[in-house]
Amino acid sequence: MNNIKRRVGEGRSHSKIILIGEHSVVYGYPAIALPLKDVEVSCQIEKSDTPLLYISEDPLSTAVFSALEYLEISDYHLSLSVTSRIPEKRGMGSSAAVSIAAIRAVFDYFNYSLDKETLEMLVNQAEIIAHTNPSGLDAKTCLSNQAVKFIRNKGFELLDFQLDAYLVIADTGIHGHTKEAVQNVKNMNEHAFPILHQLGKLTEQFEKAFVDKSLHDMGKILSKAHIELQKLGVSIEKSDNLVKTALENGALGAKMSGGGLGGCVIALSPDMVSAQSLADKLMEKGAINTWIERI
Ligand code: PMV
After folding, report:
1. What's the 173 CA to ligand 1 centre distance in angstroms?
2. How far is the CA of 46 from the centre of ligand 1 (A)?
């Protein structure tokens, strides 16, 4: 084992938002997610007099203990502090991002190098605690600086978004319930299949529109995906209202994002001025926070 050279270990991670393909990604269709590089979490680890408590249902705790076990340091006395700008349970990958930051902090504290594959494997272990059956999209996107097209159990592709457009993300202020929403879709059995298929098709069309740099088509496809997600029963009234507000106020398209039953709404804007005025309007209509990401 290396000597401990530093008294504080630090790790950071950014967040993510799903552009399109949530829910259908669970059934093998592609999804596209975007890293939100300015919305970050950081974790600091220091030596402590008391042992760190293991909370089995807490992804942060699982992440730290998985990292310690991986390094064969299972009984170390540590204290953790987390500073996060990522709201929890809003589909912004908070649990994956916190796990990434914490695992990086553990490795940093013990001065071990950490390759991306090991990090992703440890994060996904913690994500199983948070989501039971995660597709892996959150971890992949929080670990990426580029947009990610992801197909479960098949792989991923990095996409270069350089469209000179803006994505407005609006927080409904209501916790999303990914596990419950995924279960509800599962309970729909064959009734969900045509909707999931349509979401898969829309995701492929979205990727094509993006390659063609056709903002208008991208917007229309996002709005169509929202209607399909409504049919799956995973949107809520507040998300629907914010989508409507976005469309009435210059958005090229808008939809809920992530597992749903709460969480965030995204809207595509052609320029910064309209993105800012859209964000203001969404705040006026009940969003509790907004972010603007250049794409
Ligand atoms: O709420 P989020 O951002 O964690 O997204 C969940 C996305 C789902 O497709 C509903 C589930 C998954 O594991 O991909």
Report:
1. 18
2. 32
3-state secondary structure of 7: coil
Among 25, 180, 229, 257, say which to mutate for ligand 1: greatest number of ligand atoms within 8 Å of CB.
25
Please give the DSSP secondary-structure letter assigned to residue 263: S
Residue to mutate, 19, 137, 186, 255, ligand 1, most ligand atoms under 8 Å from C-beta: 137
Residue nearest to atom 14 of ligand 1 (CA): 135
pLDDT in tens, the chain (295 residues): 555 555 899 999 999 999 999 999 999 999 999 999 999 999 999 999 898 888 877 888 889 999 999 999 977 789 999 999 999 889 898 889 999 999 999 999 999 999 999 999 999 888 887 666 677 888 999 999 999 999 988 889 999 888 889 999 999 999 999 889 999 999 999 999 999 999 999 999 999 999 999 999 999 999 999 999 999 999 999 999 999 999 999 999 999 999 999 999 999 999 999 999 999 999 999 999 999 999 9
HSE toward the beta carbon, residue 72, CA cutoff 13 A: 2
Residue 289: beta bridge partners? Answer: 171
For tokens 């975007």, name the residue: 34
Residue with tokens 């990914």: 178
Looking at residue 5, the DSSP 8-state letter turns out to be -
Residues whose beta carbon lies within 6 Å of some atom of ligand 1: 18, 22-23, 25-26, 91, 131, 134-135, 137-138, 176, 178, 182, 258-259
Q: What's the predicted TM-score (pTM) here?
A: 0.90
